[in-house]
């Protein structure tokens, strides 16, 4: 027995078989090669997408078709469903309506290029307190007519080929909007009403008129603030407004638009897609219109303007330095805040 043990201990141990490293090297090379190919593919992919997008951009030199007041009824952007339950609840809406904004590539070059000489020549003198209760209606009328005459002389306005002078054309456009107010109460009852409100201005006035108004706001940013105050001042005398500009002002329609901008999802989304200055100005006059409705017992939607007053005061104080009438707005808003404490 001892001899067998001694013989077993004298036998050399078998060496372990060394594994080849070749399979591991091949695996590493294949993974590395795949990573390099994927990296090169994704580096080339964005440039191809950019080329496709650029091919779809319209040529800026092409003239726009003539703007018409009937664009809202004949355009292809309108909602095709007449009720939430019709056509299995499907709603067709153009992407332009859903976004509510027009890219700068859709505007002709004459609208995008702001000429400093024309801007300075068309600047309208600013009174100390426009839109105040002490301003005479005749002064507001003269300022608005001067603004319309200024528009008729601008090349970017002529490019839209209006079928009448600016004072007639935009008076008819304003009347059309007053005759078709948005939905204020019950907006969130169904998706169809929300989409209607979101695309309200595209449905009512049409795409070309939206482009025209955006171009005017862009070019006349130094004077449209005063013009809005003049319109608000003259709106307090509906008979004079009808006589001067053939606009039949309906108080309920003006109140509906104010409530639309202050309380509805569609109205708030529309304002937040606009320039901050325009958003604050529209919100300010909307508050004044609703406050007048409260005083005269016409606040049929039960709108509470106190949150809107607080929000607008904070927004103007923090980011309203570009407003020409900043102090005028804040004085009136603080008066209203104290009134509703």
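-> sequence recovered:
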């Amino acid at each position: 027995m001892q001899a067998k043990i001694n013989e077993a201990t004298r036998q050399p141990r078998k060496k372990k078989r060394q594994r080849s490293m070749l399979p591991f090297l091949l695996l590493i090379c294949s993974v590395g090669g795949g990573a390099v190919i994927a990296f090169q593919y994704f580096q080339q992919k964005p440039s191809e997408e950019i080329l496709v997008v650029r091919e779809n951009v319209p040529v800026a030199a092409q003239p726009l078709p003539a703007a018409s007041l009937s664009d809202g009824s004949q355009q292809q952007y309108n909602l095709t469903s007449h009720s939430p339950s019709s056509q299995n609840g499907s709603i067709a809406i153009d992407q332009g309506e859903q976004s509510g904004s027009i890219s700068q590539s859709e505007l002709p070059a004459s609208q995008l290029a702001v000429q400093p000489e024309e801007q300075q020549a068309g600047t309208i003198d600013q009174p100390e307190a426009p839109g105040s209760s002490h301003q005479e209606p005749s002064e507001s009328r003269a300022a608005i007519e001067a603004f319309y005459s200024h528009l008729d002389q601008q090349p970017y306005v002529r490019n839209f080929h209006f079928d009448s002078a600016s004072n007639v054309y935009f008076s008819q456009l304003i009347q059309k909007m007053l005759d078709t107010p948005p939905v204020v109460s019950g907006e969130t009852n169904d998706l169809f009403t929300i989409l209607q409100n979101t695309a309200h201005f595209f449905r009512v006035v049409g795409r070309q008129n939206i482009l025209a108004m955006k171009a005017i706001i862009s070019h006349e940013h130094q004077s449209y603030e005063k013009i809005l105050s003049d319109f608000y001042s003259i709106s307090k005398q509906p008979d004079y407004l009808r006589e001067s500009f053939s606009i039949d002002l309906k108080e309920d329609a003006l109140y509906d638009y104010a409530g639309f901008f202050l309380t509805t999802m569609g109205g708030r989304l529309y304002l937040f897609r606009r320039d901050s200055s325009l958003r604050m100005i529209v919100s300010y006059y909307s508050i004044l219109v609703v406050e007048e409705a409260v005083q005269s017992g016409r606040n049929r939607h039960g709108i509470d303007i106190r949150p809107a007053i607080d929000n607008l005061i904070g927004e103007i104080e923090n980011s309203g330095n570009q407003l020409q009438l900043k102090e005028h707005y804040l004085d009136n808003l603080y008066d209203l805040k104290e009134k509703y404490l």
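Residues 125 and 251 are 30 Å apart (CA to CA).
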